[in-house]
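Hi L.,

You mentioned the student needs an example of a multi-chain input paired with its predicted structure. This one should do, with 675 residues in total across all chains.
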Amino acid sequence: MSDAKLTAVEAPPARWGLLAEFESVEKLLAAAEAVRKAGYTKFDAHSPIPVHGLDEAMGIRPTRLPLVVLLGGAAGCAGGLLLQWWTNAVDYPFMISGKPLFGLPAAIPVVFESTVLLAALGAVGGLFVANGWPQLFHPVLRSERFRAATDDTFFISIEAADPRFEDGATRALLESLGSRAVEEVER
Amino acid sequence: MATAPVLLDNSHEDPRRRAPLVLGEPDFGAITEQVCAIVEKPKPPRAWYVAFGISLTLTGVLFAMIGLLFLQGTGVWGLNMPVAWAFDITNFVFWVGIGHAGTLISAILFLFRQRWRTAINRFAETMTIFAVMCAGIFPTIHTGRPWLDFYLLPIPNQMGMWPNFRSPLLWDVFAVSTYFTVSLLFWFVGMVPDLATLRDRAESRWKQILYGILALGWRGSGRHWHRYERVYLLLAALATPLVLSVHSVVSFDFAVAQLPGWHTTIFPPYFVAGAIFGGFAMVLTLLIPMRAYFKLENIVTTRHLDNMAKIILATGTMVGYAYAMEFFMAWYSGNPTETFVFVNRALGPYAWAYWTMVFCNVVVPQVLWLRKARTTPLALFVVAMIVNVGMWFERFVIIVTSLSRDFLPSSWGMFTPTWVDLLTLFGSIGLFLTLFLLFMRLFPLFAMAEVKSVMPQGGLDIGPHHGHGQYWGEIPRQHETQFAEDDR
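Structure written out for the whole complex:
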């Protein structure tokens, strides 16, 4: 990036976006669907519980995390097999009780455990990466009202960075959807 | 909250509709208040201090006994040759067994879409974590030489040696440590939304920082919930075979040996059923007093107790079947040593332990056939306590009677516990309770987000849904409302 471009960057807008409060699951679902149909892409819903049908209403595509879990499981399976074969049959062959140095049946319990372990670590690691955890600050957390999002209230946030975002129109849309209160959130 | 009289017994079956899972028709805010109050009260109730004082003292005793063991060696215990495993491994199997209820409730009941699990899953998972911690102590100290524990792990070392992967004892290391790790992940991921609730309600600075960090920045985002639910489902699917595998592998420690009384193929299912049996008994032991003390009867309803009692009855019956089948096989095998070992169990010097076990695990749980016993908390508490004792004796009987009299009468020997053995056992109970009491004052003991999601306002029955909380099976909502109208 050239210096000219760097200096051309303006101070970030003080406003992050709008936060609209809803009182029930039904209203949240209807509003999420309307916001998506109005063409917004940088918006999110916030709820104290997992809301059923929200994925469809918001148009969220299925996550690819199951693939990460599969890869983790495959790595654990291969790693568990290799570890046992290499340590007991190659690097330190040690005859005990006349058992073969490496036998698949005796290797299965450890292979099973390492498969489950890496698959689970893949699932949770993938969740952390995909959700951007830990992200200790987010503009919506500035809002005093938003504290109820983990208690009993539902919210929709629309970012000012959304190409369709317009001062009056976006607020009017949210209000028309039955929002109890719409507030501006600072960056 | 509504002060209207609440019907507290929801255990009656009405096939036309589902029984409510949360009683008194509270709103979401009331659930948050009720659960957070346990943590947020400036001072815990006096009973908490008493319980904490006792358990902390016992924890001190545990560490003193471990210190004595490390200083003097395993001679401070009563074990000997031939009984080289006694209280140490009995306690290990006992605690690992208790650790099975948590992941069973959180994973298997989740896959079976049992909505009622939401009220008790956090409680049981927490218990699992702490029980497995207590279990982990015993294998690491049981040689009296903890500085050699690294032999258990495949760590490159100066001796050029590797652990022997053909031994069930090593499988056990992998099974228990994987179980602990996966349970911990499951428990923590499940707790993130509730930690965010505590963060948003926190008033003091240190609580805001503590919960703020632990909540990872959770803001209930629909996109986050989507991935969260998918991961929760995957973890449940992974944890389900894991639960069954852990006690199976623990049972291999015995079943793969050639000792009569251990060398049997019934052990894996027998141990798993026993673990679930004992685990649920421990859940009830802790849950019933807490439910009464904090007035949580509307969340942990009579129906929950009834369901858990039914699981205890079912698994207890499986355990009873296994006891009988061991005797049948001893006779049917025609192996004189095997037959002797079982006759010796029932009539030999440890007969008192054997019949204590049968009484506690097979006879007493039969009262749970009575609905009245399943729905009376006090009766259930007494049964659960007896089962806890019985399950400890089961492991003692399996381990000690088999070792004390095997093939050669010349190598027989008796085991008598020393005071160090006994104090170590009681100390481990103290450690378990100490951790639990600390947890209940710092973290949400009930999964608020999940309880809310199975309430009517949660909109569980709106639209298609995959994963978390998809419990409703094939019953469309319309039927319920239709019947409700018929009733009017």
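You could point out the following to them. Chain A is about 50% helix and 15% strand. Residues 88 and 96 of chain A are 11 Å apart (CA to CA).

Best wishes,
N.
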